[in-house]
Design goal:
Layout (H helix, E strand, L loop, with lengths): L1 H6 L8 E4 L4 H8 L3 E4 L8 H14 L3 E5 L1 H14 L3 E6 L8 H9 L6 E4 L2 H11 L6 E3 L13 H11 L6 E6 L8 H14 L3 E6 L5 H10 L4 E3 L6 H7 L2 E4 L8 H8 L4 E4 L4 H4 L7 E3 L4 H13 L1 H18 L2 H18 L11
Parallel strand pairs: 1-2, 3-4, 4-5, 5-6, 7-8, 7-10, 8-9, 10-11, 11-12
Helix pairs in contact: 3-4, 7-10, 8-13, 11-14
């Protein structure tokens, strides 16, 4: 959302962001010269925040509102319905693996309030359509995109960080970036790395992120002293990826995650699970390695294989870099959104876009 908001053509789009809560991203947006309204949502039943959003819509008279993730979509659809404006687009970011029937019931009941549902992958579209029983024509797939140049490998940064962390030139560094959450399946990665460490001492792990399963990582760090480096929240993901040799995404479910795409842009070989979205991002054996979800043995074998074969790491990393530049660039993402916004505002029906007659 941050990249989209700051990259939309300012000669054609006047952008305003309403944040449920404040934080780093809101401050980044302000520094880009984008108007930001912080709603300061205090909980799921915070009516005052909804009223703030409704007042904002009435005052500014926007042509289009674009919501991201369920709680923003919930507030956005209600506010747009009660104020009579604006045109409405929502983005689904994940093929939800948890039991959330109310989300699909809400999407089905309010489908006619929304002009188009954007999905970050075909897997997200198919999953949501199946669960909500909505027709496919209500959806638009726009792949997540990244600034590939921002993640280009930096040899100076690699040497600097590995020296700081005490990682030798001959050691293999495995990286993970993301929320420490059940969805990401961090224990699978920790178990695989610890298994490899039992037979070879040149494996190290670096993790950036925080979340509800931080205690699992803290216990691992205590029991496996020297094996892993935990950075917590980090603003230097490009540096971390430059310092790494392999990236792992062991998720139980996804949409189209940005972290492995960033690793691919950095020229890293990626090992990931065969979950929705990841199978669209990575071509197994060509631009990365895909393994079955929850298969710790397969992850261990894949990591050991890459650790032993620098040529294979280089081959997969180079192919991954080409793939993400060709198909998952932020420029392609922004252009697709610009075309969608203009088509909706300029001449589409007020709600519920339907297929055009042949």
């Amino acid at each position: 959302m941050y990249e989209l908001a700051r990259r939309l053509d300012r000669s054609r789009f006047d952008v305003h962001v309403a944040a449920l809560r404040g934080g780093a991203v809101a401050e980044w947006l302000k520094r880009e010269g984008i108007d930001v309204t912080v709603l300061n949502v205090r909980g799921k039943l915070d009516v005052s925040a909804l009223l703030k959003l409704m007042n904002l819509l009435r005052r500014e008279k926007f042509h289009l509102l674009h919501t991201h993730l369920f709680h923003a979509d919930l507030a956005g659809r209600i506010a747009a319905k009660l104020t009579g404006a604006p045109r409405l687009v929502t983005t689904l970011h994940v093929a939800e693996g948890r039991f959330r029937p109310w989300q699909y019931a809400w999407a089905r009941m309010t489908a006619n309030w929304c002009d188009r549902i954007v999905c970050v992958s075909k897997a997200v579209r198919d999953h949501h359509a199946r669960m909500s029983h909505l027709p496919l024509w209500r959806y638009k797939v726009v792949y997540n995109g990244i600034d590939t140049d921002a993640y280009a490998p930096d040899q100076r940064r690699r040497e600097e960080l590995r020296n700081r962390w005490g990682v030798g030139d001959d050691e293999i560094m495995v990286a993970f970036v993301g929320r420490l959450d059940y969805q990401k399946n961090l224990p699978m990665l920790l178990e695989s790395v610890s298994r490899i460490r039992r037979v070879r001492n040149d494996i190290r792990l670096v993790i950036a992120g925080d979340g509800t399963e931080a205690l699992i990582l803290k216990n691992f760090l205590r029991d496996q002293s020297g094996l892993a480096i935990w950075l917590g929240q980090s603003d230097d993901v490009p540096g971390l990826l430059s310092a790494a040799d392999i990236y792992v995404q062991p998720s139980r479910w996804e949409g189209l995650p940005l972290a492995p795409a960033e690793a691919m842009a950095a020229g890293l070989p990626v090992v990931a699970t065969k979950t929705p979205g990841l199978t669209e991002l990575i071509e197994d054996g060509a631009s990365g390695l895909l393994i079955d979800s929850e298969d710790t043995d397969a992850l261990t074998k894949a990591l050991d294989k890459l650790a032993n074969d620098p040529d294979e790491r280089k081959r997969l990393g180079s192919a991954a870099q080409r793939r993400v530049r060709e198909k998952f660039s932020i420029d392609a993402n922004v252009k697709a959104h610009e075309r969608l916004y203009e088509s909706i505002v300029s001449g589409a029906p007020r709600r519920g876009l339907r297929p055009q007659p042949k």
